[in-house]
Please model this.
Amino acid sequence: MNEIKKAALHTIDAHANTFTAISGAIWDEPELSLKEFKAAALYTDALEKLGFTVQKNLCGIETAFSGSYGSGHPVIGILGEFDALSGLSQQSGVAEAQSVTPGGNGHGCGHNLLGAGSLAAAAAVKEYLAASGKSGTVVFFGCPGEEGGAAKAYMAREGLWYGLDAALTWHPSDTNEVSTGTNNSCIQVLYKFHGVAAHAAGDPHNGRSALDAVELMNIGVQFLREHMTDDCRIHYAITDAGGVSPNVVQANASVLYMVRANKVADSVKLQKRVDAIAEGAALMTGTSYERIFIDGTAETLPNFTLEALLHASFAGTGVPQYTAEELAFASALCRTFPPQTRAPGIGAKFDAFGWNVIELQDGNDVEQIYDAIQLAYDTKGKPTCIVLNTVKGLGATFAEGTGAHSSQPSKEQWDEAIAAAEKKLAEIKAQ
Model:
């Protein structure tokens, strides 16, 4: 790595307090999609202080903004997100669930980190351009509403991305890696059912329950799940149950649905089936309904050339060195997860590239592994990926289910582990 690049990276350390303060403030005051007014103000103020030219209210979205530096091409966009989720209020610095406000908002997806990390990257690129004297422009985009609202889709509709040569982002995770493959396309639709109110005891026959329609729709979608491909997902939330009085036939009720699939065409097909179920629920209950489109996004299109370039740069930069305190906190977090927790998305990534994916829920079962290999040989015309969901340290009580990747066992622990392995080997040989 040359000295100019090293100096650019040093910029991140020099302004570390700024980035961590923004992340902490957004964690402490989580705001829902398209209502991130305090977060947007924090970022625009920071961008101006760092020497970026700021533009607010991008594409008519109050909490969308940009900060640019430089001139000419290439024009590199760096995308930051900062919205929270409802019901995920959480105190910082503790490894167990402890809400600040019961039922309040929180950052389950780590968007407080996402935006701050993207800002740090933009600041480093700005320093590189200034120090090298090279042509180029870096633009930090504040992208609200990722959790619901899909502001980036509306920014795309306005042609905002056409001026970019490339756009980069990242997402907090438990691994340092350059992501490849794709993400699911997604469609959100709100269904509002309207019926006729009536007294549930004195006049129920004249009522038409919108809540019944919501419930029947949900039941219909449950039966639909058997007839979807494995890459599809459907989620829902009842946003309006019609009230809190059971002695009233509810005249209005609403349910919000989210449909996902690997390809946008498949999402659209599945969404039409959900629409048909909503229509059927209205017919069965004598109610009417409104279909309100909320947002929709296509799947991510991978850029393998850019990914290879990023990986080379990533390898040259190296990974952070963590303190003993940080590692202890990470271990405490690991212990809150069930031992059998799957590594998310591994099989889905290979499936997106057309591989035959075989996933074993018990990756420690030798017979299952053998059967999976035979299935792989029987599959012609495409490669096979076998995903093993394993338990680390199986059979060794001191290590099993801890999630630890490395340790220094005592002699007694080593003896226990070896004895467990020898016992298992004997069982396999006896079969």
About this structure: The mean pLDDT is 89. The chain is about 40% helix and 20% strand. The chain has three domains: 3-169, 185-297, 341-430.
